[in-house]
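Bench log, entry 3. Co-assembly request; chain sequences pasted below exactly as received.
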Amino acid sequence: MNIKEIAVIAKSASIRLAAVKTDVKNRALNEIARAIRQRSDDIISANQQDLSAAEKEHLPMPLLKRLKFDEGKITQVIAGIESLITLDDPVGQTLSAIELDAGLELYKVSCPIGVIGVVFESRPDALVQISTLCLKSGNAVLLKGGSEAAQTNRILTEIIAEASETAGLPRGWIQLLQTRQDVAEMLAQDDYIDLVIPRGSNEFVRYIMNNTNIPVLGHADGICHVYVNADADVNMAVDITVDSKCQYVAVCNAAETLLVDSGIAESFLPKVKIALEEKNVELRGCEKTAAIIDVKPATEEDWSTEYLDYILSIKIVDGLDEAIEHINRYGSGHTDAILTSDKDKAERFMALVDSGNVFWNCSTRFSDGFRYGLGAEVGISTNKIHARGPVGLEGLLIYKWKLLGAGQTVADYSGPDVKTFTHRKIK
Amino acid sequence: MNIKEIAVIAKSASIRLAAVKTDVKNRALNEIARAIRQRSDDIISANQQDLSAAEKEHLPMPLLKRLKFDEGKITQVIAGIESLITLDDPVGQTLSAIELDAGLELYKVSCPIGVIGVVFESRPDALVQISTLCLKSGNAVLLKGGSEAAQTNRILTEIIAEASETAGLPRGWIQLLQTRQDVAEMLAQDDYIDLVIPRGSNEFVRYIMNNTNIPVLGHADGICHVYVNADADVNMAVDITVDSKCQYVAVCNAAETLLVDSGIAESFLPKVKIALEEKNVELRGCEKTAAIIDVKPATEEDWSTEYLDYILSIKIVDGLDEAIEHINRYGSGHTDAILTSDKDKAERFMALVDSGNVFWNCSTRFSDGFRYGLGAEVGISTNKIHARGPVGLEGLLIYKWKLLGAGQTVADYSGPDVKTFTHRKIK
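Structure output for the full assembly:
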């Protein structure tokens, strides 16, 4: 099958999946959990093949660790599915209801988006999470995982498809793509695919954003800032800077630039330098920073670089508004924090910084679906429409308008001496 | 100024506008209403220039009528502004609030999208409606109206900008583009413009959708269907078909194709033919239709044609599922109606037809922001994300996540023997 044929089947499955009742979807989730448990030996053995191949190709240790899918991971993904079963069905919720006139009722009702294309990194557990989130929200899904995980992804998809179709889901609601070329062809299927969610490197996400007419949900850069206002608590500022930069450097919500108010620079910078250098962070500073502490000089490029590494750029600013301006100019709209004891300044920062996540006196690393209590996360969005910040199930939903009448025509409501609308809320 | 400079100014204004308080926005709306009233002579005289030019170019009468901006229209747009003032501020609403842990609170708060580019048809009242909706929702706006209305649009923009900036809004939050070339350049400003709303011909909307990386909200085609199920009330079916087709043929929610169940075709078709021919509707039918009533033959192309005229294509289908399949294949996801006395069939139709608006026993012409009680409408969307169907103020909003802490780091919540999240709802 070519990718268009795959997409056509997914579209057709998505229509039927949208109308599948809650108990059938939950039964399918149960069957999937059961089948994953039952076939765990096959899964682990497929994963062993991927791991040996990856070792032969000398994949770095962190990648190997993410690729590994063992008993522990299997228990985790099954627990995830079980918790998904307990959630209310997000489809078919009445979001608003209004009587337009007696016997003419308008309902705004949540429904699935349709067909979601997801391109994800090498963790095979992501495949299970994403596909079961799509199932619960009634969306068909085309998946493309990292090629290192090919065998594991193949068997997981097979198990999920088989178990869910036995439970009554439409054939083809979940399908796996094989190659990068498949992804390129998927991006052209805007007649059949409604949303693409890419996860992976900045370059890859940007390539997807620039090469499709399908809406894309996600983020390329994560250039996050910590701004230390003049009245910040210095010890708190040191702790939060260290956490924001170092708690996990390779992720999108790690801080890349530290903005320091000139009023606190002399007391704060020497302390934060010691704390960061203990963690082996390389510091790059503006000229004013270099006048206070010993740092490499930062260039213009540093302000728009996502290091994803033990490197931090530092800039001294004159007051809140310069910090806000810097963030809106160089940031990526992901996550930015202000450290201050002044509520008004915090509020001004959170109102004027145009980012999906704006924090006061806490670490940028909190910007995450699990920490936000959203359950599993489909990704973090820096889009300005639909869904922003960490996106859970609700990002996979839209709504339709249902109007229930008894023969009404618009002519009855047009012109002089006609019926008028009541527009009375009924929910 | 070139378009990039205009967009940069709008972006900068949008940041400040996002934080403008409700009373300042309402004062600005009041000032705009006052200034439009005060300068009504200037507006009418500018409109006279546009009208004379248009008459010289022999614009068709319906276009001239839409172009006209007289005392009546002025009274209408002022009434619109006054009703907008009475609405709650949609910005700053807390959509959810959750305590992640003691002293660490997460708020999901509504906020403006940013900079909206709107391309609209020749009605100058649209300029006032759209710009005041953007103001109330805290969005900056770049406007491009029909060139026939150039003088009217120029003076209206001037009045709105002056009045609102005097009331305290940031300079450049509203700006008018002049030419089609300006629009093409606007579409390249994806660093500064967050959403484009095109209104106008199908070809024009499709051109915009295919030529920008900025998200586009709107619709190209409006291929709407009426499906008459076997158990429909024949008289109701005739009335609704006539209304859906003829009440206003030139608009997107007028029906273009009539699907008739084979079980009712012989009783229904002759009656609907008489009623439609009274309105001078040309009928084009499938072979089975032609075997019952005298119609021109419909071609494959007819099923995907939006006539916007007194023409209706007719197809006989065998049952509900064939109707659903036809609509999902040839429709545009806009508005589709089923006529049936069977609730289960209606529900199946509304669940499986993948359109923004799905109706039971009423006319497709109800699909409209005013009739839905949304107040003014920014457009009708056939998108599958963000906003669907008639879109009012809420389509101009997104949200940001605000996290308020007291020094928390993620390290405190990571690893063994650590703090755990409470995830307790606080609203």
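Chain A has a mean pLDDT of 96. Chain A touches chain B through 73 residues (CB under 8 Å).
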